[in-house]
Amino acid sequence: MDQQNHATATWLTVTPRENNHYGKISTQIYLLELDVLPGNSAPPTRYGNWVSRLHELQQFQSIEGPMPKRRSDVAGAAESHLAEWVHHQCQRKLTMCAYAAARLEGIPGWQWKPRTEDWEQRLNDLATFTQERGDVPTPKASDHDERSLARWVQHQRDASRTGHLSNERTARLSALGYPMPKPVNACSNVGRWCSLKSRPRRFVYSVVFSGRAEGSVVIPVSLSR
Asked: 180-218 burial, b for 16+ CB within 10 Å, e for fewer?
């Protein structure tokens, strides 16, 4: 099915379910797509720019395979801009007309929550590795995929240690045989005040992170009262 036929099929499927406001937006985008010939850009309007970006994404995905990613090199500037647009579309899902959402979902590899789905994929890879090898991945393995999986497990441990790993994910990793460390209270002894007998009188506020003194703040008594 070519692009225009796919656009028509999508419009006929989703538009009848929309209210009047979003239905009009869907129709505008659909008509713009019909007017744009292959290789040409849509007019520089709000919805015209959206159509042009959609077609750029489809072309990129058909040539490169995976979805665009943010890159720091100059050669990847165009890909980075496209990746930013994809990220913005994911954030607008709840306020997007049904036609636009359906057109995006029709792109192979499209994900509304790529980070969540990537995490699920890595967890599945870890489960498969553990079942097939009967061992845990090591960061010094000769196999690149095993090293990458070992780094991912370490990142999960780091996230758990700093309190950034949810209880649900912690439980799922533990069920696979990868117990996560308990969150560390970064400020275990914050609030320890000491009065010194030296003159002039003053308070010393010692801040201790993970049992190691990072410094102290000296506060004159006149300011501490």
From this structure: beeeeeeeeeeeeeeeeeeeeebbeeeebeeeeeeeeee
Residue 14 and residue 85 in one domain: yes
Please state, in angstroms and rounded to a whole number, the distance separating the CA atoms of residues 78 and 69: 10
Report the SS3 class of residue 105: helix
User: pTM, whole model, 2 decimals?
Assistant: 0.51
Q: What is the dihedral of CA 168, 170, 173, 176, to 10 degrees?
A: -80
Do 83 and 19 belong to one domain?
yes
Cα–Cα distance, 92 to 87 (Å, whole number)? 9
Residue 202, beta-bridge partner list: 196, 220
With DSSP H G I counted as helix, E B as strand and the rest as coil, what are the percentages for the chain, rounded to 5?
A: 60, 10, 30
Domain that holds residue 143: 114-175
Mean pLDDT, the chain, rounded, equals 75
Residues 52 and 119 in one domain: no
pLDDT per residue as tens digits for the range 29-79? 888 877 776 556 677 788 888 888 888 898 898 888 788 877 667 667 888
pLDDT at 178: 92
Number of domains in the chain: 3
Strands (E), 150-198: 192-196
CA distance 56 to 204: 61
Q: Let me know whether 123 and 99 are in one domain.
A: no
- Judge whether 183 lies within some domain: no
